[in-house]
């Protein structure tokens, strides 16, 4: 009994992948899980948000259309400021990335939902795709000149070997840093929320009247944390996207 | 395969982060690729072209409106300039008119004054001439009267029938002496 309660309240229980129905195709395990479900929910909601906002597409926008336009301008500004004119080609991808990560982060805050981006493999897959893409673009655009990225101009000759090694390492850990940053933020935030929310239940049910009164404290903390997590959800989506832009910029202009 | 799945479920129950359970990776990646691709297609084919179009149209419209405003402003400025030119012209014209009128009036006044002067001096000359004539006439008659009076006085006082010519001569010289005094 005690154990089941502990399991049910385990703060990492929320990250568990639960199959909804099994689906094996061509030797791959493509089972539809709660993670898949929330990915589908996120893309459905974001599509509804974007298509719904633009369905009337008038020159003088309403509130909904303005929201979509602001999002567009926000990402377009990021691409413009960090990549420049050449970045326009990659705007649809960057926009999709931002919308997807933001949608997953925000949807994860709904009670009983699942946070897709709290799984390192999802973030890592995206980060690896970005890393591979950026590297290919870099070599495709600049040829061997892309290697200049690892030897910044203006570095004294005796320092160059050291700097080059550092630059290469920092370049290669990009997919890890990019994915771990988002993963760690989502993981920590949701564990904290779960722990404090768990305190409310434990205190309210287990410690009588005094406990019930004391449960107000973790409740308040949970409310504040929810606000904070809302901020973190948006901020991390922004960070993920802007780092993608900065990597793209490196691919376009490797000369720093 | 379902056996493998139970293993997955069991390994999750063992504790540890579900994120580190590599058995779930395959499915997550497959569904990530599917949903991301679908979202990318929707975004790039449906949403972004629409938003871009609306933003471009708006920009164009604003630019057009600004152009129109600029044109109207230029028109208004032209009208204003024309108005100001007309006002200035009218002003200078009225000044000219006033000046011309002043000159005419002054000329008229001068002419009238000159006429008056001429008239008055002519009249004064005439009057003077008349006065002189009257005085001459008076002097002439004084001669005759004085001669007659002198003859009468001679006859009555001395009983001399004075010679007319001598008397007249004496009277004349006396008179001219008086006149000279």
Layout of strands and helices, then pairs:
The complex is a heterodimer of chains A (256) and B (181).
Chain A: H1 2-8, E1 19-21, E2 24-25, E3 28-29, E4 32-33, H2 34-53, H3 63-82, H4 91-107, H5 120-142, H6 160-172, H7 174-206, H8 208-214, H9 216-252
Antiparallel strand pairs in A: 1-4, 2-3
Helix pairs in contact in A: 2-3, 2-4, 3-4, 3-9, 4-9, 5-7, 5-9, 7-8, 7-9
Chain B: H1 2-13, H2 25-158, H3 164-180
Helix pairs in contact in B: 2-3
Task: Tell me what the structure shows.
The complex is a heterodimer of chains A (256) and B (181). A two-stranded antiparallel sheet of chain A has the order 1-4. A two-stranded antiparallel ribbon of chain A has the order 2-3. In chain A, β2 and β3 form a beta hairpin. In chain A, α3 packs across α9, α5 (120-142) runs parallel beside α9 (216-252) and α7 packs antiparallel against α9 (216-252). The relative contact order of chain A is 0.13. The longest helix of chain A has 37 residues, at 216-252. Chain A is globular and about 70 Å long. Chain A has helices spanning 2-8, 34-53, 63-82, 91-107, 120-142, 160-172, 174-206, 208-214, 216-252; strands at residues 19-21, 24-25, 28-29, 32-33. Chain A is 69% helix and 4% strand. Chain A is mainly α. In chain B, 90% of the residues lie in helices and 0% in strands. Chain B has three helices and no strands. By secondary structure, chain B is mainly α. In chain B, α2 packs antiparallel against α3. Chain B has one domain (2-180). The N and C termini of chain B lie far apart (176 Å).
């Amino acid at each position: 009994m005690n154990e089941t309660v502990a399991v049910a309240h385990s703060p990492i229980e929320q990250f568990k992948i639960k199959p909804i129905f099994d689906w094996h195709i061509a030797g791959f395990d493509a089972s539809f899980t709660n993670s898949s479900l929330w990915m589908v929910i996120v893309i459905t909601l974001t599509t509804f948000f974007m298509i719904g906002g633009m369905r009337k597409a008038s020159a003088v926008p309403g509130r909904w259309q303005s929201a979509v336009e602001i999002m567009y301008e926000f990402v377009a500004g990021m691409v413009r400021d960090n990549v420049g004119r050449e970045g326009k080609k990659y705007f649809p991808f960057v926009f999709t990335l931002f919308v997807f990560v933001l949608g997953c982060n925000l949807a994860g805050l709904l009670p009983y939902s699942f946070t897709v981006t709290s799984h390192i493999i999802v973030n890592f897959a995206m980060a690896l795709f970005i890393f591979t893409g950026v590297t290919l673009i870099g070599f495709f655009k600049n040829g061997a000149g892309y290697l200049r990225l690892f030897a910044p101009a203006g570095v004294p000759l005796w320092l160059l070997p050291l700097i080059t090694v550092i630059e290469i390492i920092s370049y290669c850990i990009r997919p890890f840093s990019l994915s771990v940053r988002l993963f760690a933020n989502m993981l920590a935030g949701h564990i904290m929320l779960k722990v404090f929310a768990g305190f409310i239940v434990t205190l309210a049910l287990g410690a009588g009247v005094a406990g019930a009164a004391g449960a107000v404290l973790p409740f308040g903390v949970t409310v504040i944390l929810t606000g904070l997590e809302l901020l973190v959800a948006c901020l991390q989506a922004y960070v993920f996207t802007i780092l993608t832009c900065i990597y793209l910029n490196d691919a376009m202009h490797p000369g720093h | 395969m379902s056996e493998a799945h139970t293993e997955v479920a069991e390994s999750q129950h063992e504790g540890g982060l579900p994120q580190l359970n590599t058995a779930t990776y395959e499915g997550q990646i497959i569904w990530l690729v599917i949903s991301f691709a679908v979202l990318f297609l929707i975004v790039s084919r449906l949403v972004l072209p629409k938003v871009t179009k609306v933003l471009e149209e708006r920009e164009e419209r604003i630019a057009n409106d600004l152009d129109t405003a600029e044109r109207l402003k230029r028109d208004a400025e032209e009208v204003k300039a024309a108005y100001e030119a007309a006002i200035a012209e009218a002003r200078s014209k009225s000044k000219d008119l006033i000046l011309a009128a002043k000159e005419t009036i002054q000329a008229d006044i001068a002419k009238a004054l000159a006429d008056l002067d001429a008239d008055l001096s002519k009249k004064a000359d005439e009057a003077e001439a008349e006065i002189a004539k009257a005085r001459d006439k008076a002097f002439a008659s004084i001669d005759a009267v004085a001669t007659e009076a002198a003859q009468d006085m001679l006859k009555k006082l001395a009983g001399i029938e004075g010679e007319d010519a001598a008397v007249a001569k004496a009277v004349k010289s006396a008179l001219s002496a008086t006149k000279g005094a």
